[in-house]
Each structure stands twice: as C-alpha cells, then as structure tokens.
Amino acid sequence: MTYFRAVDPFPLESERYTKLHEFYTRLGQGRLVTTRCAGCGRVAWPPRGFCPECRSDRFEWADLPGEGTVAAFTVQETGLPAGFDGPRVFAVVDVAGHRVFSVLREVAPEKVAIGQRVRLTPMRVDDDPEGKPRWLPAFSPV
Ligand SMILES: [Zn+2]
User: Fold this and answer.
1) Cα(63) to centroid of ligand 1, in Å?
2) Considering the domain boundaries, does residue 2 fall inside one?
3) How far is CA 26 from the centre of its chain?
4) What is the Å distance from ligand 1's center to 43 Cα?
5) DSSP per position, 30-60
6) How close is the Cα of 44 to the center of ligand 1, in Å?
7) Structural domain of residue 51, as residue ranges?
8) Is residue 1 assigned to a domain?
9) How far is the CA of 47 from the centre of ligand 1 (A)?
10) Is residue 5 one of the residues assigned to a domain?
C-alpha cells in the first residue's frame, strides 16, 4: 500500500531530508546517540546540525547510556497517531542529564513511576517512503 506523505507521521526521518539521519540508523542498532559540536564540544539533546553556542555546523556523534530514569510521564488513551495502539505511555526520560521524550513500552500505565529505571528499547515504526526501516526512541522497565 502506498501512503501519502500527509499521513506519514515521520516524514522527515529519512536520509533525503535530514543530515541527522545517522541518529536513526544507530537507534536501529540499539544505540542512543546525540551530537557533540566539533567547534566547542557541547553535547546537545536533541541532536543538532547547528550549534547555537558557537554557530558551528560541524559535529560528531556521541554515545549516550542505554539506561535512564523516568522524569515525567503521561498516558494517552485516545487520539493516538495511526499505527499506535493505546493506551500509550509517553515519558520524559533523563539520560545522563538529557531529557529524552520517548515512548514507554512493556509496562502497564498504572505501574509507571517517577524515578523508575528504564532501558533503551527502540521502537520500529512504519518504513520511510523508500522502504527503509525507521525507529523512535523508546524505553522499557529495567
Ligand atoms: Zn559549538
């Protein structure tokens, strides 16, 4: 089946549209990475192709830990994007001081707690329009 771009929830997550695509490639390998500015060394989250501190557009990839702590969460029961089953737990996960917005998997909403330890379990979503796999950051209880 061919989907129109207007109903693709992740239209820019492909090699053609973002130089940060490597983030998703590594995510698919089970690694959470972000950018380190090659100019000033600042590690940013989310990954950035341009540094607001020193205005450099050169960067390298830096690995982040594969575990974090739930800093905040919410449960969405209705109005979920196509392809998402409900209820869905969305969380802000603290990973080495970075606030990573993600989905929590493999947990009942009533079992989620602030301070809970979680590990990276990337979630595969619909392939991009060229048929390549795409991933989103997701975490599961440790
Ligand atoms: Zn910089």
Assistant:
1) 17
2) no
3) 11
4) 9
5) T--EEEEETTT--EESS--SS-TTT----EE
6) 9
7) 10-141
8) no
9) 12
10) no
